[in-house]
Amino acid sequence: MIAVSGATGHLGRLVIENLVERGVAAGEIVALARSPRKAQDLAARGVQVRAADYSQPDTLVAALQGVEKLLLVSASEVGQRVAQHRNVVDAAREAGVQLLAYTSILKADTSGMQLAAEHKASEEIIRATGIPFVLLRNGWYLENYTGNLASTLEHGALLGSAHDGRVSAAARADYAAAAAEVLTGSGHENQTYELGGDAFTLPELAGIISRESGRPVEYRNLPEDAFAGVLVSVGLPEPFARVLADADRGIARGELFTDRDDLRRLIGRAPTTPREAVAAALRG
Ligand SMILES: NC(=O)c1ccc[n+]([C@@H]2O[C@H](COP(=O)([O-])OP(=O)(O)OC[C@H]3O[C@@H](n4cnc5c(N)ncnc54)[C@H](OP(=O)(O)O)[C@@H]3O)[C@@H](O)[C@H]2O)c1
Questions:
Q1: Mean pLDDT of the 132-141 span
Q2: Distances (CA, A) of 121 to 80, 114, 132, 252
Q3: For a tag site, which of 36, 187, 194, 243 has the least CB within 10 Å?
Q4: Residue range 141-180, pLDDT digits in tens
């Protein structure tokens, strides 16, 4: 059986779709959900939905019974993630999981971004268990940008603190396909994949948005504090806004850029381009 955590989230759902498309029987897929009621649609399709909260270790060992391969989708509560991931890894060892794949971040071991610290610590915990692992070091999601397209168009400005740093972003669907490959294919044990799509700078992305929409959009680089302030003003909690502004500083340093073609090789096709993602978001 193959288990996917964060199954009620965007990425987890896409991984489960990919597993089904690859011919994995629904009954062989375990959807680990903090709130199983959010996964009722998956249960209706025959997927085994099991309650699993990263912060409640007793739920985890039970949820992983009979699971051979586990995709641990990294948790979303920044600051709590190392302890949460440790709980999942401990439970995986106790339950006899034979392959543990983890969604990390590009260059987790060398990146200076605040976001990377928890991933680096989590990778170290995973390596120390002795369970065969796969580190899926995901780059930025294209959706981080296309999700704000309406506001970008309204203001005619894409805001950030990344200067002209290059970011190798790809669609969640691409990262999900890569995860499904390592869960169903062979030869991935103890591999670390640096995953990203075509690289672009934020000024280039503003140009793409402008061309695809036919409306003027410019990139406006802000000091990190000012960018964090903008993110707070649109409703993000301040600590998270600061983490995202810090990530833009990381982009300026090249920490979300990769020239490796691991993603393309794993999914057997070109990852979604920024132009395709923008065009799809404009249609949608
Ligand atoms: N590469 C990037 O650009 C990028 C951007 C954002 C996030 N991320 C990372 O990638 C992960 C997956 O992305 P996503 O878009 O799928 O995020 P998402 O839609 O927010 O999904 C996160 C999933 O994790 C689950 N979860 C959170 N805390 C949990 C806990 N304590 N116990 C069990 N499950 C828990 C959530 O459950 P509920 O449905 O119950 O909330 C949800 O299913 C994120 O969690 C984050 O670590 C990466």
A1: 98
A2: 12, 12, 17, 23
A3: 187
A4: 999 999 999 999 999 999 999 999 999 999 999 999 999 9
Q: Which fold has domain 2-139+172-196+259-268?
A: Rossmann fold (3.40.50)
Query: Tokens 């390596």, residue?
Result: 127
On whether the CB atoms of residues 203 and 219 are closer than 8 A, the answer is: yes
> Could you report the per-residue pLDDT of 55-84, keeping only the tens digit for each?
999 999 999 999 999 999 999 999 999 999
Tell me how far the alpha carbon of residue 74 lies from the centroid of ligand 1, in angstroms. Answer: 6
Ligand 1 atom at minimum distance from 11 CA: 16
Residues 155/164, Cβ–Cβ less than 8 Å: no
Give the model's pLDDT for residue 217. 98
Q: 234 CA to middle of ligand 1, Å?
A: 21
**Mean pLDDT in residue range 137-142:** 98
Q: Which amino acid is at 245?
A: A
253 lines ligand 1 (CB under 6 A): no
What string of DSSP letters covers 154-173?
HHTEEEES-TT-EEE-B-HH
